[in-house]
Structures are given as structure tokens and as C-alpha cells.
Amino acid sequence: MKNYFIIIDMQNDFVTGALGSPMAQEILPTLVDEAKAARARGEELIFTRDTHTPDYLSTQEGKNLPVTHCVKNTEGWQLVPELLPLAEGADIFDKPTFGSVALSEYLVRKNEEEGIGSITLAGVCTDICVVSNALLIKAALPEVPVCVLRGATAGVSKESHEAALVTMASCQIEVK
Questions:
Q1: What is the CATH architecture assignment of 2-175?
Q2: Which of 33, 70, 126, 136 could potentially form a cystine with 104 if both were Cys, beta carbons 3.0 to 4.6 Å apart?
């Protein structure tokens, strides 16, 4: 059985760019340390990238969040430099919206092929993309332990971060 460590949307635009925040900057060293430790334990690292097109502002999401960000192939779309060495050779899922159905389907296949021992998630934003992916994964793999790292996730605000953690815990996702 393999364990997976999934890093959600740790891209320049969410850390220092268009939607960057001090909270995202604060968790970066912890997240990098956790990812390195996961790799040292032999866990499979997976990354997601929020991925938009130049017409983002005309999409439903763009109308509700009118800040152009993570446009494919721009600097803001790239993973933060601190994670680039860990991303070499890792699977990266580009997702056009909050949760990645493709990632969940991939994990279901991996579970059927080799079994999954556990899945850990970290990254941004706890209250949007982390919670969306965690719930999709848990729904697809209800018997696989799923965990979210409180100290390696950051939300839009501290209040929404905490609310998302409570929501995930109520859906049998371990928060540690």
C-alpha cells in the first residue's frame, strides 16, 4: 500500500502574487518540511495547480472572484520556487476549478491497483480548494484515511480556515 501527500495550489499567485497572503507565506516553511518528510518516508507527492485561461473574468468563478490569477503558463501559475525541487518527477494535476475530479479518479485507480494506505493534504486555500479536494477524495475513497495538516494549510482568512477544518473533520477527514 502506498501513502500519498498532496500539495494543493502552492502557486506564486496564492503565496506572493495576485491572491497572495501573509497566512500562505507563513505556512510555506512548514509545508516544505512536511513534504520533504513525506518523500523521505517514501510517500508519493502529488501537486495541483489552479489553472485558468486569459478569459477567466468571463467565467462564473471569475465573475464571483474578479481577480485574474493562475493563468496557465504565467509566473503566477507556477509552483512556488521552494517546492520546485520536490515537484520534479511528481504528478501535477492542472484543475480549472476548485476540486479536481481527475485527481480523485486517479486516486481511485491507484487504490484499485495497489491499495492506498493514507492520503494527506496541505496547501491553499483551506476554505476553497483544499476542502473541495479533500471532500471529493473522501467521497471517492470512503475507507481510505484522509488527513489535512492544519499547520501546512492557509485560508482566505483565519476564520474561514478554521471553519473549513471543522467541516472536514465533521466529514471524517482527520485534521492534525
A1: 3-Layer(aba) Sandwich (3.40)
A2: 136
